Task: inverse folding
C-alpha cells in the first residue's frame, strides 16, 4: 500500500480536519493543527481546513489534526511528515545525519515540554479548566453530555500527567519549564531565519505552530505568552513564517484576523 | 559547598555502580563535576525507600528527581557544563527529551514488563535489596507503574494491543540509539573531550541496557552493533568508576559472576515458590466456572439452532 501512496500525486481536494475554530478548539490542538498547516504550506501542498465538532472522533488515532488525502487518513505531525515523504516531498532531505538527529531531538523537546505544558495548563489548572476548557470542549453538545465528555477527557489527561510525573508540578514550575524550553529554542535559532539556516524544516513548522498559538491565545492570564515574548528572536521567527506562508491566502485570513483581533481568539 | 551531601540510590551489578537509570545518571554527573557525594545504596535495611530514588540529602534539604538534583549540584558550583556554549546547552535539553520520549519506554519494558526478564532478573535483584515484606510488594509496584506509563504515553489508537505498542517502542528505541551513535561519531564525549550533563544522561540510560544480562536482549544486541556507544560506556566506567569492565580482567569477573549467579538462583527459587503459591491460589476458584460453560455448549448443540437463538 505504500507503493500506491507514492504513485498518486497530491490531490486538489486534500483536507485537514480540526475542531471548530471559534468555539471549541483548545490551545494544544490549535497548536498541533497550525504546525501541520505550516508544514504543508512549506512543502507547497495545498490543503483546505475543515472544522468539525466531532473531528476528534473521526481521527484514526484520536488525536488532531488529521488529513484526508485521496483515500488515506493520517493524523498527527509525525505520521503526516512520513506520509508526505512517501509522496516525494521532504523538507529535511538536505540535512546531514547529525543535523537530522538534532532536528528529531528538538522536535521531541517541543513535544515533551511545550505540548505537555499546554495540556497541563488547559486540563490541570483548575481556574483555566473551569472558565475556558470545560465550556469550550463541550460546547457542541447539550447538557449533560458536555460536562460528561469534558470530565472524561480531563480524567484521561490527568492520568497521563501523573504517569509522567507532571501531576505534582505547580503552575509556576510548569511555566519555568516553558521558559527553559523557549530559552533553548531561542539559543538554537540564534540569528538565523530558520532552525537549519536557509530552509524551513518540520521543526520550524512545529515550533511555529506552538509559539504562534501561545502568543495569540487569550487565557486567564498572560503568563504563558509572556514567557515566549521574552525572546525577541522567537517572536520575529513567528512573524516571519506567518508573513511568508500564511498571508495572501484568503482561506487562512482567519490567521490574520486572529492576529489583529487577538483578544477574541479564545473566549 | 561545605555541607555534606548524601545520595540514596539503587546499587549495581554486572560491573555497573547502579542498575537504575536515574541513579546512574546522578552518580555519573557527580563524578564528572567532582561533587563529593556519599553514596548509600539501598540494601536490605529497614530504611525503606520512600517515594522515588535517587534522593539527595544535604543538611535539611531533600531533593528527588535527577534534573532537580543536577540543578542543585550546579548551584553548589559543581558544574560539568561550565565550558558549554549556550547552543550546546540547548542541544543538551533537546537530546535529554529525545532519550525520555524514545528510549526510556523500551528500557522500562526490558526491565519491568518483558516477562522473562522481569521474573528471572529484575524482580529477584530488586527484591534482594529491600527488606521483607516490602520486597514482596515494591518490585510489583514498580512494574505496574512502568506498564502504566508506557500504555498511557504510547498506547493509544491505532495501536490496540500490547504487542503492537511493544513493537513500536522498540522501533523508536533502536532509531534513538542510531541517532545517538550518529551524533557521537568518533568523539570521546558528546561535546568534545570533557563529559557533561548530556553524557551523564546518555550513560545512565545506555549502561543498564549494555551491561545487564537479560534472557531477552533485543535492545542490547542492537546497542552492541553501535561500537562507538559501547566504547562510550566502557570509557566512563573505567575512567570514572574504576570498575573492571568484562573482558579486561576475565578471571576476577568470572568469580564475581559465579557468586552472583548463585545468589540470583537462591533468590529466584524463593520468588518462584512464592509465585507458585500465588498461581495455585489464583487457579483454584476458576475451575468450576469452566466446567459450567462446557456443559452449556454441549446442551445447546443438541437443540436446533434457530430455537436456541429465539429464546432470550
Result:
Amino acid at each position: 500500500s505504500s507503493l500506491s501512496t507514492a504513485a498518486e500525486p497530491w490531490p486538489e481536494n486534500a483536507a485537514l480536519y480540526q475542531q471548530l475554530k471559534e468555539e471549541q478548539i483548545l490551545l494544544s490542538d490549535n497548536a498541533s493543527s497550525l504546525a501541520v498547516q505550516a508544514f504543508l504550506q512549506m512543502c507547497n501542498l495545498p490543503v483546505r481546513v475543515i472544522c468539525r465538532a466531532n473531528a476528534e472522533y473521526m481521527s484514526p488515532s484520536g488525536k488532531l489534526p488529521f488529513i484526508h488525502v485521496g483515500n488515506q487518513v493520517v493524523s498527527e505531525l509525525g505520521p503526516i511528515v512520513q506520509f508526505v515523504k512517501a509522496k516525494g516531498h521532504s523538507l529535511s532531505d538536505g540535512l546531514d545525519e547529525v543535523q537530522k538527529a538534532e532536528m528529531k531531538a528538538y522536535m521531541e523537546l517541543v513535544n515533551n515540554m511545550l505540548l505537555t505544558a499546554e495540556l497541563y495548563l488547559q486540563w490541570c489548572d483548575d481556574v483555566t479548566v473551569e472558565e475556558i476548557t470545560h465550556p469550550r470542549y463541550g460546547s457542541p453538545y447539550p447538557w449533560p453530555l458536555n460536562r460528561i465528555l469534558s470530565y472524561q477527557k480531563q480524567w484521561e489527561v490527568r492520568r497521563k500527567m501523573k504517569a509522567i510525573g507532571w501531576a505534582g508540578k505547580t503552575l509556576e514550575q510548569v511555566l519555568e519549564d516553558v521558559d527553559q524550553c523557549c530559552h533553548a529554542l531561542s539559543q538554537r535559532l540564534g540569528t538565523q531565519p530558520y532552525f537549519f539556516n536557509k530552509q524551513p524544516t518540520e521543526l520550524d513548522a512545529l515550533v511555529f505552530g506552538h509559539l504562534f498559538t501561545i502568543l495569540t491565545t487569550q487565557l486567564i492570564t498572560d503568563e504563558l505568552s509572556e514567557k515566549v515574548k521574552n525572546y525577541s528572536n522567537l517572536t520575529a521567527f513567528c512573524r516571519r513564517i506567518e508573513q511568508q506562508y500564511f498571508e495572501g491566502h484568503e482561506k487562512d485570513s482567519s490567521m490574520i484576523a486572529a492576529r489583529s483581533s487577538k483578544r477574541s481568539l479564545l473566549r | 559547598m561545605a555541607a555534606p551531601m548524601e545520595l540514596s540510590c539503587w546499587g549495581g551489578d554486572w560491573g555497573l555502580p547502579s542498575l537504575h537509570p536515574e541513579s546512574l545518571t546522578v552518580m555519573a554527573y557527580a563524578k564528572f563535576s567532582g561533587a563529593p557525594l556519599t553514596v548509600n545504596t539501598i540494601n536490605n535495611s529497614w530504611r525503606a525507600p520512600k517515594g522515588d530514588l535517587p534522593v539527595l540529602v544535604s543538611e535539611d534539604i531533600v531533593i528527588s528527581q535527577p534534573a532537580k538534583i543536577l540543578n542543585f549540584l550546579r548551584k553548589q558550583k559543581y558544574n560539568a557544563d561550565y565550558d558549554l556554549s549556550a547552543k550546546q546547552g540547548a542541544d543538551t535539553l533537546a537530546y535529554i527529551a529525545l532519550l525520555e520520549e524514545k528510549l526510556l519506554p523500551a528500557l522500562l519494558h526490558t526491565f519491568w514488563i518483558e516477562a522473562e526478564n522481569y521474573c528471572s532478573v529484575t524482580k529477584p535483584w530488586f527484591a534482594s535489596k529491600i527488606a521483607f515484606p516490602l520486597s514482596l510488594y515494591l518490585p510489583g509496584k514498580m512494574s505496574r507503574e512502568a506498564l502504566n506509563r508506557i500504555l498511557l504515553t504510547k498506547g493509544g489508537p491505532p495501536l490496540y494491543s500490547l504487542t503492537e505498542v511493544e513493537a513500536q517502542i522498540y522501533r523508536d528505541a533502536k532509531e534513538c540509539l542510531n541517532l545517538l551513535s550518529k551524533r557521537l561519531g568518533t568523539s570521546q564525549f558528546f561535546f568534545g573531550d570533557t563529559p557533561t550533563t548530556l553524557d551523564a544522561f546518555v550513560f545512565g540510560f545506555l549502561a543498564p541496557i549494555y551491561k545487564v544480562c537479560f534472557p531477552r536482549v533485543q535492545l542490547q544486541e542492537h546497542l552492541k552493533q553501535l561500537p562507538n556507544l559501547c566504547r562510550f560506556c566502557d570509557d566512563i566506567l573505567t575512567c570514572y568508576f574504576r570498575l573492571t569492565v568484562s573482558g579486561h580482567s576475565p578471571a576476577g569477573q568470572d568469580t564475581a559472576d559465579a557468586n552472583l549467579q548463585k545468589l540470583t538462583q537462591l533468590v529466584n527459587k524463593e520468588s518462584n515458590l512464592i509465585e507458585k503459591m500465588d498461581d495455585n491460589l489464583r487457579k483454584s476458584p476458576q475451575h468450576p466456572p469452566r466446567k459450567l460453560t462446557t456443559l452449556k455448549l454441549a446442551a445447546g448443540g443438541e437443540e436446533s439452532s434457530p430455537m436456541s437463538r429465539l429464546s432470550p
Notes: The radius of gyration of chain A is 18 Å.
